[in-house]
From TrEMBL:
Domain N-acetyltransferase residue range list: 3-163
One Pfam family here: Acetyltransf_1
UniProt-recorded name of the protein: GNAT family N-acetyltransferase
Source domain of life: Bacteria
PROSITE patterns: GNAT
């Protein structure tokens, strides 16, 4: 199996939209305009390819995004710096291969060089025990709950402290900045037509 994790390109948004809306009840549906907003506001928006086929994606954004999600806003009201995982989708044929852990290793690698906290939520109504267990074993802890006004579904707000961030902040962010390496690059810092491919977890 050949696996790559790379930034989503604009021409791939139709494929991402299809992945999102085929994911089932644990992922809120999107229309094209909503996906475009998500794409524009996300500081991390990456696609998993397995043997050349789109297998899933993960989007995350920083605390300064212009994003109206009530769960994102819950974190912005309480934490000055964070990366918020808005959604992760794995296509059904590729579930059970560990892509969720690959994505979480990669987004953690992105976040821990920029912010002290990684945040997300899981649905409690209906309760998604697979997601609850996954996040618990990944080191997330519940920091609150709320009911989403759009659909009345209750969610658990989760956060994980990124222990490496103080070292990165004191050694690099407060001084020379991050090294100019592909796996540390922000979106858009690559040559046109050549989306970056990096090993999962930022290695």
């Amino acid at each position: 199996m050949s696996l790559s994790i790379r930034d989503v390109s604009p021409h791939e948004l139709d494929s991402v939209l299809a992945l999102n809306n085929a994911a089932g009840s644990t992922i809120l549906p999107l229309d094209a305009a909503g996906l475009h907003t998500l794409y524009e506001q996300s500081s991390y928006f990456r696609l998993a390819e397995v043997d050349g086929h789109a297998a899933g994606f993960l989007s995350a954004m920083r605390e300064d995004a212009d994003y109206a999600s009530p769960n994102y806003l819950w974190f912005r009201e309480r934490y000055p710096q964070f990366a918020y995982i808005d959604r992760i989708v794995i296509a059904k044929p590729y579930r059970g291969l560990g892509l969720g852990r690959v994505f979480y290793a990669d987004v953690t690698s992105y976040a821990e060089t920029r912010v002290p906290l990684l945040a997300c939520e899981v649905f409690l109504e209906p309760r998604d025990d697979v997601s609850v267990l996954f996040h618990g074993t990944w080191g997330f802890q519940e920091v609150g709950q709320q009911t989403m006004p759009s659909n009345g579904r209750r969610v658990s707000l989760l956060a994980k402290t990124l222990c490496s961030y103080p070292f990165v902040r004191d050694t690099y962010l407060a001084g020379p900045g991050l090294p100019d390496l592909p796996w540390l690059a922000e979106r858009g810092r690559v040559a046109p037509g050549r989306p970056p491919v990096r090993a999962a977890g930022g290695a």
